[in-house]
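Typical record is below.
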Amino acid sequence: MHPFSFASARDPLPDNEQKQTALNYLNEAWAEARHDGVDGDCLAQASLFAALAELVSTYGEDAVAKFAENLPGRVRNGEFSLALARQ
């Protein structure tokens, strides 16, 4: 018998590392779906639905609605733009 379970054998990653790891997994899944012919717009809409549904189940509808109210400004400020700054 092992003194600890597999899940507890590893300390959880810090929040920023978890986010980067999650993004890497999503990028891989996205690339595989595109390779299989899934349209980028369909992927984006499904991803937003899944993300918002997860946030609602975790934080509730009011908190997620409040979070979403800030999205237009964040989009306009370039927080989600992937284009690299040119020199």
Q: What stands out?
A: The longest helix spans residues 15-35. The mean pLDDT is 87. The chain is about 65% helix and 0% strand. Residues 33 and 48 are 15 Å apart (CA to CA).
